[in-house]
Amino acid sequence: MSNNNLHNKHRERMKELFTENGLDSFSDHEVLEFLLYFSIPRHNTNETAHMLLNRYGSLSAVLDAKYSDLVKQPGVGPHSAVLFNFIPQLAKRYTLDKYNKKRAFKSIDEICEFVINHFIDQTREHVELFMFDSSTKLLCHKTLQNGTPNAAFLNIQIIADNIYAYNATNFLIAHNHPSGSLEPSDFDLCVTRTIHNTFRPLNKHLIDHIIVAGGEYKKLLETALSLDNA
Fold first, then answer.
1. Tens of pLDDT along 16-38?
2. Pick the CATH number of 3-96 from 2.40.128, 1.10.540, 3.10.560, 1.10.150
């Protein structure tokens, strides 16, 4: 039997396995091998999948790798590199579309778990404002700032303009640390305290200010307010 026939039969078995059981039964290299079927139609992709895992160290690292680096790897052409870059962004769009339907959140932690999806694949630091009604249904979210937070982040007028434009009762601010650290700076805590104290008399409730890093988050409001009593 020719190699092409063997590869075709193997691909059919993999597709049947996925159809029946999803990806739960796949190892990481099999996930990559399967994904490569859609960009490399007639060749064995197993070796390329193993090579990529060895090169980058994990499945997520392969999918997060830059296009310019991926196309330099043996067996990975432009089609495969684009496909790998497409997957994380598709996952982000899918998650946001599925849960961004003005749902009512039941807890702060549920809100935070939703918010961190907005920072998938972000390599630059930026600040986001999420606005909710009195039932904590999401009304809208806006990017307040791209790049490292600085004094512009303290522009209370911009925050107020957005909150009143959407008639929001509750709001949450989030920014990411691409470095991977969840530790707040003194500036982060100062900003949190200032925003809370400014909007509280106006009956606009800062749910929290969170830092997002490495798929996790840290809430700052309680720590920031405790400094007032220190």
1. 888 888 888 888 989 998 888 88
2. 1.10.150
Give the span between the Cα atoms of 74 and 81, in whole angstroms: 11
Cα(167)–Cα(173) distance, integer angstroms:
16
If one compares 230 and 144, the residue with the highest pLDDT of the two is 144
Please provide the CATH number assigned to the domain covering 102-229: 3.40.140.10
Residues of the chain with CATH 3.40.140.10: 102-229
Angle between helices 28-36 and 78-99 (to 10 degrees): 110
Q: Per-residue confidence at 164, pLDDT binned at 50, 70, 90? A: very high
HSE of 90, CA atoms in CB hemisphere, 13 A: 7
